[in-house]
Amino acid sequence: MLKIYGCTGCGRLQAVSRRKSVECPACRMPMEKVPLTFLQYTELSEEERTRYALRWAAARLDGRRQP
Ligand SMILES: [Zn+2]
Questions:
Q1: How far is the CA of 66 from the centre of ligand 1 (A)?
Q2: For 1-16, what is each residue's pLDDT tens digit?
Q3: I need a labelling partner for 63 at 20 to 30 A (CA). Which of 26, 33, 35, 54 fits?
């Protein structure tokens, strides 16, 4: 089953099969698992994916700022 990973740097989403660490092919930032199933991912348009990823990345960074 593929998992969806997102880049906190540029907001790119990627479907990945089991791997320990995933690196963004665009900016080489480590990617993290996003709470999105592969099925949900396939149902999103390119634009929706970008919008989702940017929102996720922003929330991810906000969470990091808190102790
Ligand atoms: Zn990236």
A1: 23
A2: 899 999 888 888 999 9
A3: 26
